[in-house]
């Protein structure tokens, strides 16, 4: 019988400091043949990422690990460990920022504009602090949020200090992933050289650098929702995530935006006082039987976002209707309202948890209605329901 069948697996390693550890041991554990290889533990995956960030694990070692994990299929422990490793490399200044919603935007869209930016801008205009972060170079053939920031006057910042200034001024900021964790740029270069997707692309979405109370996760491929749930549970259990909620849903073309043409189920992993609770909420379909609107959207300028933001009557606005068909406008507005409804539901749940006296979370139907009101009254200083949210009054008033 082939002796390889009796090759023992490498057991769990004794981990030392990043500076002292021999990272060849992790590659050997991953690649010791068909019978002798094993997956990495949470702590080992975290150490590998930290080692690469500090230059202690080489490019060849990191690329080998990424390839071996990709071929076999990454485990939840490995991805969660990489998230923890990324978080350990962050400048501590990011954790001092006061942010309500952590909004990763890594997927981009194939042709549509990122309507989610108008949702984020609306929330920020009403006092909700939002931090967007993404990597426009990871999937350069897609249309990313970063390319549209200037059109809606959202600052792109590179340091915790400049991001804090933007949040104090506008309640919203965008940060490139490589400015949060420079090692992400190096990992992207590796997986582009290899021509393979890597677990780092999933891990980057899960950093939540400011420990915001609400953090969003979107996915496209089936099964990734369960992967994200598992990652959240591990990170809450390990104390890497602080108290808060992570909302996981299938995004429009994979981006962190709701698709109004289908109902959207949002899985919420809530970590509170050593307890992890998983629940769900649902945003109904807003465009039943809708068709069209796809053709021609790839040619739309990012200036459309500013036009749509300004126009109170978009269907009769000459400049807007010259550039967009009625079905395009309808789809854009529905994407905005569906995404905003999801955020309102999450905000209401958070407020109901914190201020439980006489406060209950709103229903999905109420959230859709409120999202329409919020959009219609986005320039009002007195009639927007989010004014009441800021004063913790709106839940009781619904």
TrEMBL record:
Write down the InterPro entries for this protein, in alphabetical order: Anthranilate_Pribosyl_Tfrase, Glycosyl_Trfase_fam3_N_dom, Glycosyl_Trfase_fam3_N_dom_sf, Nuc_phospho_transferase
Keyword Calcium in the entry? The reply is: no
The record's keywords, sorted A to Z, are: Glycosyltransferase, Transferase
Domain of life, per UniProt, equals: Bacteria
This protein's GO cellular component annotations are: cytosol
Q: What's a GO biological-process term for it?
A: L-tryptophan biosynthetic process
Q: Which residues form the Glycosyl transferase family 3 N-terminal domain?
A: 26-88
- Show the GO MF annotations: anthranilate phosphoribosyltransferase activity
**Which Pfam families does this chain map to?**
Glycos_trans_3N
Q: Cross-referenced PANTHER family, in alphabetical order?
A: ANTHRANILATE PHOSPHORIBOSYLTRANSFERASE (PTHR43285), TRANSFERASE (PTHR43285:SF4)
Which protein is depicted? Answer: Glycosyl transferase
